[in-house]
Amino acid sequence: MRLSQYFLPILRDDPKEAEIVSHKLMLRAGMIRQEAAGSYSWLPLGFRVLKKIEQIVREEQDRAGAIEVLMPTLQSADLWRKSGRYEAYGKEMLRIKDRHDRDMLYGPTNEEMITDIFRSGVQSYKDLPRNLYHIQWKFRDEVRPRFGVMRGREFLMKDAYSFDLSREAGQHSYNKMFVSYLKTFARMGLKAVPMRAETGPIGGKDSHEFLILAPTGESEVFFDKAFLDMDWSAFEIDYDDVGAVSKVVEDFTSKYAATDEMHDAADFERRVPTAARVNGRGIEVGHIFFFGDKYSEPLECKVQGPDGKMVTLLSGSYGIGVSRLVGGIIEASHDDAGIIWPESVAPFDVGLINIKAGDAEADAACEKIYKGLSAKGRDVLYDDRNQPGGAKFATMDLIGLPWQVIVGPRGLKEGIAEVKNRKTGARENVALDRVVERLAG
Ligand code: ATP
Ligand code: MG
């Protein structure tokens, strides 16, 4: 992409309305624009990141055996009346009437709808287990939308729903999602610590929240430092191997980790040596929950079991805050100059800076690198604008692409370009005709 033809509305100054660094940087880097409280348009740069995150989430869901669907954002109130949540949900639910005066709502989540979909499509115990998910916009009329996309009112969520015949089978479905979450977040460069969560009124069942550490996080967290030294990404897993999956869950739940809601100071002190006690703040990026027949029962989601008797299915739901992650990753990865994208979610792989745009030799050298890298499948943002070098460097650092290639008059004379790694700041001189090879990936 040529920057001269792109849409990247960079802000020079810190926007006053932004309280935390990710919100500031997203506005400054022209990634989002606020449309109403807690509601944002995704501008080209932000949209690319959102899509990359969404794709990682999708790949890891698919790998864990979940099947993608897409449900509408607007739902009829009927199913919610059956589950009892139409009234219970309270003011966070945006209720709407259509032209026939029918009660509709903008979905804050989809347990009811998916249970009804599954009920109407499933015949026998042989059709189980199944896990269906979608990646769809949600609306929750939060009391205090804030921190940009971190606590929006309209936000993108991945929500998966498992259906099983027995508690044991349901546990395996839960465990698979647990493991897939570790892998999903690790692919984005994050260590999202699973913490036992409140199970709400049903109680007694499993629930974990996944939190990444950041001083601006909304939850207070307490955990064992040993967590951070674990192998978060390298492990391979066979999702059909019940024992292996359960072993990973055991490993990642064996150490102390709790949000303030679940924190037990005495237990923390007993289980974690003083030097390993971490008390910090965290951002909830995912939440998994096994709730059994909470929705299957009222919505009559049952199948004929092996013995011919009808069995009510047991379910769990598994959410990931896709749009929140964009802010979360920035909270975890930035410096004074701007964002530092992990390669896996970066909007472009390489930023190519032509210091002397308009100069025939500089243009030709850049063009060759631009075309060469593009041909190798690398996404390049080429700053071909006629602007001072300093502003170009600042923009590139701000938007945080993993690699920068700088082509200027001095280097051109020697036949070299400068290649800079945004994260480490390391710079190397690379012969012009080797730049493509150096960054081909
Ligand atoms: P929170 O405790 O942060 O309000 P929640 O527990 O109500 O979140 P869940 O119902 O567990 O949220 O939703 C699944 C995921 O969706 C959360 O883990 C979070 O990452 C994301 N999410 C929830 N609410 C918002 C929001 N208002 N804006 C952006 N992402 C959100
Ligand atoms: Mg939650």
Descriptive account of the structure:
Helices cover 32% and strands 28% of the residues. The chain is α+β, with helices and mostly antiparallel strands. Helix 1 packs across helix 9 (322-332), helix 2 (44-63) packs antiparallel against helix 6 and helix 6 (167-187) packs across helix 7. The longest helix is centred in the middle third of the chain and has 21 residues, at 167-187. The site of adenosine-5'-triphosphate (ATP) has 14 residues, from strand 8, strand 13, strand 16 and helix 9.
| Assembly status | single chain
How far apart the termini lie comes to 18 Å
What Rg is obtained from the alpha carbons, in whole angstroms?
Answer: 24 Å
Associated small molecules? adenosine-5'-triphosphate, magnesium ion
User: Would you count the extended β strands for me?
Assistant: 23
Strand content: 25-35%
Q: What's the mean pLDDT score? A: 95
Low-confidence stretches: none
Helix content: 25-40%
Biggest sheet record: 9 strands, mixed
Features:
single chain, 441 residues, alpha+beta, 9-stranded mixed beta sheet, 5-stranded mixed beta sheet, 13 helices, 32% helix, binds adenosine-5'-triphosphate
Task: Please write out the topology.
Blueprint: H1 21-28, E1 32-36, E2 39-42, H2 44-63, E3 67-68, E4 74-76, H3 77-83, H4 85-88, E5 94-97, E6 103-106, H5 111-121, E7 130-139, E8 154-164, H6 167-187, E9 193-196, E10 207-213, E11 219-224, H7 242-253, E12 257-259, H8 265-271, E13 277-292, E14 302-304, E15 310-312, E16 314-321, H9 322-332, E17 334-335, E18 338-339, E19 350-354, H10 360-375, E20 380-383, H11 389-399, E21 403-407, H12 409-414, E22 416-421, E23 427-431, H13 435-439
Parallel strand pairs: 3-7, 19-20, 19-21
Antiparallel strand pairs: 1-2, 4-6, 5-6, 7-8, 8-16, 9-10, 10-13, 11-12, 11-13, 13-16, 14-15, 17-18, 21-22, 22-23
This protein binds adenosine-5'-triphosphate and magnesium ion (MG).
